[in-house]
Amino acid sequence: MGPDAIPLSKPDISQLEQTLVRDVLASGRLAIGPMQEEFERLVAARAGCAHGVAVSSGTAGLHILMQALGIGLGDEVVTTPLSFIASANPIVYVGARPVFADIDPRTLNLDPAKLEQAISPRTKAIIGVEAFGNPAHMDEYARIAAKYEIPLIEDSCEALGASHKGRRCGSFGRAGVFGFYPNKQITTGEGGMIVTDDSNLAAICRSLRNQGRDEFPDSASEQQRLGSWLAHGRIGFNYRMSEVAAAIGVGQMQRFDRMMEQRERIARLYIERLSGIGSLILPTIDPESTMTWFVFVVRLTTDYTAEERDRVIMGLRTHDVGSAAYFPCIHLQPPYRERFGFKPGDFPIAESVSNRTIALPFYNSLTEREIDLIAQTLEVMISRESITRG
Is 147 a known active-site residue? Predict the structure, then answer.
């Protein structure tokens, strides 16, 4: 792809974020400061939760929650096979076993019936993922979790600002986690956020992100606070978010509504331009859900093979249109096949969808002209595959 190519993603950084970063640099306070606190407040409020705990990544947030909830060796956690690998890796970090259940082909999220079938006496949690920002079924996952008295952890790393049946993503489970990598709805460069209404769980997560240090209440004396820095009540991690990253996040959250309007506009344009291509399946949005659009992923119909999909993606890239296969199934990634014995055919719906997905360029500054070009190029690449079949 050349310098004038349309990339797959691009962060939206304004003068506001640059000013806030300069303010942090001038302050000399680069960690554990007021920007982190403000960013935590803004994200928690957006999710409708009482507490926010800023961390170094969404993956770190999931890992901390596994640890905080006491999940470990011999335990099982049920999750989806169709997601970024970080949805499952934290389960393995704590020595537990990931148990996958197949997906709903319409929403691309866990099929609630198959999720319930996957629960066993060893199940200690459910990680529900809003695939590509689609919040469908989250209420059903919460119902199932309550029925079996196990926590629902909401992997909302792709769904900041989305909602289902009037309830905001991040608030369905015992806790939710957002991610702020540069291709997400908002970015901090790298970063994540745990949100929860559970004050005790929030306190444990704050300690775990900060090397296991215990936090003191506002009423604590200065002497207590000074003595606490090298006192560690538990084994923790260095999963803190810097003040520089938090400053970017504060600026992004202050512009959040306008940025989401731009993403909705782009998604609508894509749907208008691509709806006439018979070989494509477009994202299905539940009328009771509101999406904030992490990425725009289409998929080829079932008569196309993975090899044909790959050629379409390469054709797009050759013509300077960013594209990728989102996502390879987690259970077929080498570490999971080798360690847990998963194999092709274990989750046929997820595998079929994964073999036919195409992520198209999606970012706030994408123009209508560029979307027209992307749609035309995609149609040509699909037509080429049809012609070569004979």
Answer: no
